[in-house]
Amino acid sequence: MPSCLTPLKEVIKAEAHRLGFELVGVTAPYPPPHIDFFESWLRAGRQGEMAYLATERARQRRADPRRILPECRSILVLGMRYPAAQSPARDQQSLPPAAGGPAQRSSSNQTLGRVASYAWGDDYHVVLVDRLRSLVDFIEAQVGHPIPNRWYTDIGPILERDLAQRAGLGWIGKNTCLINPRRGSYFLLAEVLLGIDLDPDPPFLPDLCGTCTRCLEACPTQCILPDRTLDARRCISYLTIELKGSISPDLRQQMGSWVFGCDVCQEVCPWNQRFATLDGDPAFAPRQDLPAPDLTRELSLTPQEFNLRFMGSPVKRAKRRGYLRNVAVALGNLGDESAVPALARALKKDPEPLVRSHSAWALGRIGVETARQALAEAARTEIDAEVLSEINAALGEK
Q1: Which of 97, 222, 346, 392 is positioned for an S-S bond with 397, CB 3.0–4.6 A?
Q2: How confident is the model at residue 1 (pLDDT cuts 50, 70, 90)?
Q3: What pLDDT is recorded for position 138?
């Protein structure tokens, strides 16, 4: 048991810091203040294909944490830092090519993609859950008996940022991220619902975004809305991860070279430019080639090679077909002629129509004669209607 000079909450916070959680706060299990706002967002359909957000059970539990854990008396909210993206959002790889016409060709044989920095290392779902389990074990050892508990990171029916703001960790910025005034927004959030009483921390009340609108202006697809929500259906993170089918042609050009997630709205945030650091928890240290993968090589990954390359990585969530779809789009946007052979092979041989169709689009974007030849050759043998439609569109035919 903690001594009378060290309250239990402070002992728990010290252990959480030792486990790598830089942000730690406590709040009470009251309904989140923005639940009505979230319900309006769902009614507007801005969740896209993320149907799990709108199930009746999830909505009821999200509206009241005690529906998740009836014995809940306190909620511990934690944040673990991951590396800040090193490339500025104005980097040519993160901006869309000029609207209209083929992508501008690169003279430097550049075919490198971009991956959101939270996914450079190990899968946070695994990393955080192991540490949350250790933290709960520690708390139970301190009180001397088992206590009711539930923990989540990202996957639970919880408004994480609402709880984090109420626990004093920061404010919800215009880009919808939780921003800490001393450390920025490159944090992964987690929550532990506890069946014990802990004094809540004061909420973070100031809105320190002020009149700044850099994130809204920089968003390549203009998915960030003025009411501090975003239209997920246009968000590059949604398009590259959550969307399982074809990406709308009118959004592909805006995706730049992002192949998994997006960091643009965080890169331009003054609070990150001032306070975010390039390092994070060692578990999220970049794997070899992951921050900027060679896309021509990625496009040739077999299912076995994909599984091996991304074992224990968040990127595996996109699955091979989704990831290679994204890779093809990025190659089309980069516009490097050296990518034509890889795209032509994918168009001719990849077993997934989704990959073939987006490879056809990319060849059309690059637009050189060898790309058109590959498209014309594929048109003679392709039997999938959607792929054929993409080929014809890329060739300028109806």
Answers
A1: 392
A2: low
A3: 98
Identify which of 154, 165, 117 has the alpha carbon closest to the alpha carbon of residue 272.
Answer: 117
Q: Count CB neighbours of 35 within 10 A.
A: 15
Structure tokens, 330: 């990025």
Answer yes or no: are the C-beta atoms of 392 and 357 closer than 8 Å.
no
- Exposure of 374 by Cβ count < 10 A (0-12 exposed, 13-18 middle, 19+ buried)? buried
What CA–CA distance (Å, rounded) separates 99 from 89? 18
CA gap 327, 393 in Å, rounded: 19
Torsion of CA 301, 305, 310, 315, to 10 degrees: 30
Flag whether pLDDT at 107 surpasses 60: no
Question: What are the backbone angles phi and psi of residue 118, rounded to the nearest 5°?
Answer: -65, -20
Instruction: Extract the tokens encoding 45.
Output: 């359909």
Number of C-beta neighbours around residue 50 at 10 A: 14
pLDDT at 6 over 90: no
- What residues act catalytically? 154
pLDDT of 113-168, one tens digit each?
Answer: 999 999 999 999 999 999 999 999 999 999 999 999 999 998 889 999 999 999 99
Distance CA(260)–CA(235), nearest Å, equals 11
Indicate if the pLDDT at residue 282 is higher than 70: yes
For 195-270, strand residue ranges (E) read: 258-260
Tell me the pairing of strands 178-179 and 114-115. Answer: unpaired
Query: What Rg do the C-alpha atoms of the chain give, in angstroms?
Result: 23
* Residue 328 to residue 257: CA distance in whole angstroms: 10
Place of tokens 């014809």: 392
What DSSP state is assigned to residue 184? B
Helices 35-43 and 56-63 pack at an angle, to 10 degrees, of 160
The count of C-alpha atoms lying within 13 angstroms of the C-alpha of 388, restricted to the half-sphere facing its C-beta, is 8
